[in-house]
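Please check both lines for our workbook:

___
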Amino acid sequence: MSPLPPQVISPLDGRYRAAVTELGEHLSEAGLNRARVQVEVEWLIALTDRRMFGSEPLAPEQKAALRQLVDDFGQDEIDELATLEATTRHDVKAVEYLVRRRLSALGLDHVAELTHFAATSEDINNVSYALTVRQATLEVWLPKFTAVIDALRSQAADYRADAMLARTHGQPATPTTMGKELAVFVYRLERIRSQIEGTDYLAKFSGATGTFAAHLAAEPDADWPTVSREFVEGLGLTWNPLTTQIESHDWQAELYSRIAHANRVLHNLATDVWTYISLGYFRQIPQVGATGSSTMPHKINPIRFENAEANLELSCALLDSLAATLVTSRLQRDLTDSTTQRNIGVAFGHSLLAMDNILRGLGEIDLDRDLLARDLDANWEILGEAIQTVIRAEVTAGRSSIEDPYALLKELTRGKRITHEDLSAFVSQLEIGDAAKQRLLQLTPATYVGLADPLVGYLP
């Protein structure tokens, strides 16, 4: 990896480059241009395979040589395109000229005019973006997202029986288990993952205003919609038959909204884990050589989760903007989508960086079971819910005549700290059946977790 100049603006290309470098294979300018070369080459091959305008199908070795241009795309091509674009002032035209040069070098000048044939720049661009975004999503973003889910799933299983005091509105509430709480996030993220995995990546290839007008002028007898559909589907994409000059970008808006949704659930995870660390429920494992504070040597700061929060917020801001902006194009075309789409990689990058931090953070914490137990034992008043609910059941069953069980327990517990002895004395004098009374007397905050443990088994 060549060293970066010190004046890079984006931290994704500087400080955090190692965490997001895989995205550059797809969502950089170079990745986009490689895809453009691929689309130009495959379109030319598709036309010659159909013997359009008297052409003959290329020999297998000629096709292989053309496709090798994509595989070999590297710094030489990046530099050459920069030189060409300095003259053309048009990025896609520069790609066309590069492909023509390679055709000449391969002795294929006789089919050179089929390069970029009847294609508007957006035909090339929309297919290229669909290819690169699909690859970035499936090969880079989703594997990292899945790794986070898998790490959470493992911890949910490890901690499924570890009772802890819940907090609703920040106040002590009915206990749960740490595993069940982490399983909630796994369930949420799994649903979003399945939606993202089901994304349709749409593309069009129908000319300047989506009418196949130039195509039909050149060859009136060809079934151009079929040619277009088979070309797009041959690249593994979904054909969009009805567009303006641009593909309408609705699939992009859908995908970016789903990734933003995933980001927000991960943000919720990061803030919850941060809070559990603050409460002492999770201990942070010291990392050799690491410094938590420049002046307070005792500190281990939850920086992984704080870094994740910030990057998720940045990613969502960009993804929300992309989803909102890309679905609007004035009449048959404006250029707002062009510069907007160049930020797709940045949006993905901040999300990827956040997930990298979450993964690292989850690997650097351990559950403090002793503290969980002490916290539960200090909050016996939370059993007020169980007691008043049991009394209601007993009244309904005719085994009690207590009036307004809720008010009775509210008077006993609201805003107070109640001991085990206090509750035992209270329950012992209750007018309820013996079986119910014994259940309540045996109940503790640590055992009042309902079905939290087996609920983890509902994870897909």
